[in-house]
Amino acid sequence: MNELSRDALVEKADAIQSKADFDAFTQLLLQDYRCHPDDWGNNTLELFLEALAGFVEGMGGYYSNVGERIDMERPGWRVFADILLAARVYE
Question: CA of 83: how far to CAs of 1, 2, 53, 72, in Å?
Fold first, then answer.
């Protein structure tokens, strides 16, 4: 598998519009973890889930800060990708 730069992973997440896109993204995310586990600030299941929960709790503020309007009651596939990306490094 080819290595994917961090920027390319974020670009893939930003381009998600369907379940198929999300499927492909999760495969790339897994590839990134397998190739660069030390680059993930939250590289254990416990740390990852703690960060995921923390990001979900505060994600309304995140989207507000970046100027995006997201329906928090009905998030789309791209939001799920954002949550997974954030959980890699969120403190």
Answer: 24, 24, 9, 12
